[in-house]
Amino acid sequence: MAIHHVLALTDVSRPEIDALFELTSLLKQRKVKVSAPLAGKTLGLMFQKPSVRTRLSFEVGMYQLGGQCAYLGPEDIQQGHRESAKDLARVLSRYVNGIAARTFAHQDVVELARWSTVPVINGLSDTHHPCQALADLYTILGHFGSLKSLKIAYLGDGNNVCHSLMHGCALLGAHLTVATPKPFPPQPGIVEEARRAAARAGGALTLTHDPNAAASGAAVLYTDVWVSMGQARTPAQLKAFAPFQLNRALVARADKRHIVMHCLPAHRGEEITDEVMDSPHSMVYDQAENRLHVQKAILLWLLRGAKSR
Ligand code: CP
Ligand code: NVA
């Protein structure tokens, strides 16, 4: 049987998302009858970068499902330096039932999945953050009931979080506008993939460099840090991003029932003001909580059938 990996949201179909979110709701409402469905199972966490939400939600999630995690940090792994991806993946597959990896180059997590004989989940790479986007979509659905034709605006850097949101919004038929400064657009190949998926689902993806146009009438305003982990931070870069800050003036252009989203960690005072982050429209902590519920559903989906080690 083929192993199912989750490296980008292109690995997940619309019916799978629907099933995943149904299971997420059961887990969130504590309606899953089996008490320790992942008893005896271990998830290996291979993290090249720091993490709070992703690491903790996998660790707490596995614990709540009756399993456990084993964490390997940057000092332990050194993929490609101390050891090849092939050897790492082959060895880990003998110990654990699944791997969640956080990498710099997306190719690193792809290589792990290529050689692993257990499911690999991308816990953020430089290019994608699929678990985050699934939690975001679940949060938006919980608030608005549907993403079909919903006006969503992402403002800031065309980064990993933006890419996965583009894939996810496309699958669910949303109308997403991505507003970035000219030098920081999303990757063209991913834009094309998302546009094709959006067309199939009756959604749309618009790119702009005008933050005001993107925010106007939006039901969802989403932002992320202007400088991602591993990137250099320059004064010129911060200046280019300044008009994209989620602040009182920009938020005033949105629909009056809008919600504000951020994957966190946030740089308060840069991409988002305290006032907006702490306003009643802000869903940022619900998003963070939903990481746990959605990832528990992903873990059950991928690991339940796995052989105990
Ligand atoms: N949103 C998110 O992935 O947070 P961490 O980097 O803290 O895991
Ligand atoms: N774009 C950010 C997301 C952190 C969750 C980064 O990669 O640092």
Structural domain count: 2
Number of helices: 13
Low-confidence stretches: none
Query: Cα-atom Rg, whole angstroms?
Result: 19 Å
CATH architecture of the largest domain: 3-Layer(aba) Sandwich
Termini separation: 18 Å
CATH superfamily of the largest domain: Aspartate/ornithine carbamoyltransferase
CATH class of the largest domain: Alpha Beta
Helical residue percent?
40-55%
Instruction: Look up the CATH topology of the largest domain.
Output: Rossmann fold
Mean pLDDT: 95
Main sheet properties: 5 strands, parallel
- What small molecules are bound in this structure? phosphoric acid mono(formamide)ester, norvaline
Approximate shape: globular
Sequence of strands across the biggest β-sheet: 7-6-5-8-9
Order of helices and strands: HEHEHHEHEHEHEHEHEHHEHH
Any overview of this molecule?
- By secondary structure, the protein is α/β, with parallel strands linked by helices.
- The chain has two domains: 9-129 and 290-303, 3-Layer(aba) Sandwich (Rossmann fold), CATH 3.40.50; 132-288, Rossmann fold.
- It contains 13 helices and nine strands.
- It has a five-stranded parallel β-sheet.
- Helix 7 (160-171) links the parallel strand 5 (151-155) and strand 6 (175-179).
- Helix 2 (53-64) crosses helix 13 and helix 4 (85-95) packs across helix 5 (106-115).
- The two termini are 18 Å apart.
- The mean pLDDT is 95.
- Residues 51-54, 124, 132, 263-265 line the site of phosphoric acid mono(formamide)ester.
